[in-house]
Amino acid sequence: MNSNHVSNYCVFLCVFRGDVVRVKKSLCQSDRSVTMLTAKLSSQLPLSALRRIHREACHSCFHPLPTCFFHKEGGRTRPHVPSQTRMVERMFHAQSAVRLREPQHFGRRSFSLSAATIVNSAPAPVQPYLRLMRLDKPIGTWLLYLPCTWSIALAADPGCLPDLGILTLFGTGALLMRGAGCTINDMWDKDFDKKVSRTATRPIASGEISRVQALLFLGGQLSLALGVLLCLNYYSIILGAASLSLVITYPLMKRITYWPQLVLGLTFNWGALLGWSAVKGSCDWTVCLPLYVSGVMWTLIYDTIYAHQDKEDDVKVGVKSTALRFQEQTKPWLSGFTVAMMSGLVVAGVNAEQTLPYYAVLSTVAIHLTHQIYTLDINNPEDCWKKFISNRNLGLLLFLGVVAGNLWKEEERPCCKTEEASR
């Protein structure tokens, strides 16, 4: 590392103790320079390098490294940080907190298979593309995949587990399509992302990947996703291809309507239709339609909560969301969506001849959503994020309920056969 790099990283370290004068002189008051420098630091330097730079090159920063970066550690009050550095601080925590908090045992890093660790361990030229498809943030892939699992499990034969091969195929498709959707979103929102602290370091917004490179990468993702789709039956191929229009147009909806979360729900829950058709060869609309509507309501719940994190930035840049539409009436709206979601799941269960375990899990899901909404603090981004990611566990719980309810049918069938024989 040359002296110029050391000097720049030293400047970055000083941002977190409020050395604004030095930052202004070194970076000419350029927020973009600070952002790109932070992204490079958090994506390329290990903790040991940060400590070495801090020790050897940043003698003017008198705080120990953990205090310099995390002012809330140990219960200490955080010193004032000028407003122009808050974007850097928020972004740094989002991208590098995992690395800085890695537990170490006897001088060696513990082994981790987290998504963020895998991305950070990839070759440097590949990392921007992995971050572009949000491989380091798998929650979106889970939320896209889980409605597929519900549908596949509901379509399984009574007393049987869902088809593992189809589950794996849909998991691969969810990973690719979520990545493609993120790429399209970032291509559309490049100028908006630059103005929002949480998104300013995304690869296209920060200039790591050009729009032409992103377009080529998008073509590769869609080609692989098409390969997955072609493994299904003809009915499913046509049905899956019909969702592409939603994938492409969704990023535009935030410019047009206060209901982009509704369009996201229509897009993200297409698997509730596709999963059933992949198993059965066509859709049973008495099951698939209420399941699909329930998924859309679920998306309106969790993505409205998610949107409350960015509502201040959204107002500044001029984009819309249900968070801005509902504002202080968010909880009543979310409660209504919950009632609609649970009603759809009950109807789908009845039409699919589900059994007691399924309805028991539905009760647990209803309690989870009620608690989630009741305790939600829409003005606390950290709380919104925690409530948002808790929906992955909710989706997994519902999947297990469908599987258990389907296996329960096996115990009922011998009794039915005995009654028929006696007649």
Automatic annotation (TrEMBL):
Question: Where does the source fall among the domains of life?
Answer: Eukaryota
Q: Which Gene3D superfamilies match?
A: UbiA prenyltransferase
Q: Which UniProt keywords apply?
A: Isoprene biosynthesis, Membrane, Mitochondrion, Mitochondrion inner membrane, Transferase, Transmembrane, Transmembrane helix, Ubiquinone biosynthesis
Instruction: Enumerate the transmembrane spans.
Output: 139-156, 168-188, 234-253, 333-350
Required cofactor(s) = Mg(2+)
Alphabetically, the GO molecular function entries are: 4-hydroxybenzoate polyprenyltransferase activity
Q: Which InterPro entries does the annotation name?
A: HB_polyprenyltransferase-like (IPR006370), Prenyltransferase (IPR039653), UbiA_prenyltransferase (IPR000537), UbiA_prenylTrfase_CS (IPR030470), UbiA_sf (IPR044878)
Q: Where in the cell is it found?
A: Membrane; Mitochondrion inner membrane
Pathway(s) where this gene product acts: Cofactor biosynthesis; ubiquinone biosynthesis
Give the UniProt record's GO annotations in the biological process aspect.
isoprenoid biosynthetic process; ubiquinone biosynthetic process
Q: What's an example GO cellular component term for this entry?
A: mitochondrial inner membrane
Please verify whether the record's keywords include Zinc-finger: no
Give the reaction(s) catalysed: an all-trans-polyprenyl diphosphate + 4-hydroxybenzoate = a 4-hydroxy-3-(all-trans-polyprenyl)benzoate + diphosphate; all-trans-decaprenyl diphosphate + 4-hydroxybenzoate = 4-hydroxy-3-(all-trans-decaprenyl)benzoate + diphosphate; all-trans-nonaprenyl diphosphate + 4-hydroxybenzoate = 4-hydroxy-3-(all-trans-nonaprenyl)benzoate + diphosphate
Q: Please state the Enzyme Commission number of this protein.
A: 2.5.1.39
Q: What does this protein do?
A: Catalyzes the prenylation of para-hydroxybenzoate (PHB) with an all-trans polyprenyl group. Mediates the second step in the final reaction sequence of coenzyme Q (CoQ) biosynthesis, which is the condensation of the polyisoprenoid side chain with PHB, generating the first membrane-bound Q intermediate.
Q: Which family does it belong to?
A: Belongs to the UbiA prenyltransferase family.
- Full protein name: 4-hydroxybenzoate polyprenyltransferase, mitochondrial
Organism, by scientific name, is Mastacembelus armatus (zig-zag eel)
Name the encoding gene, please: COQ2
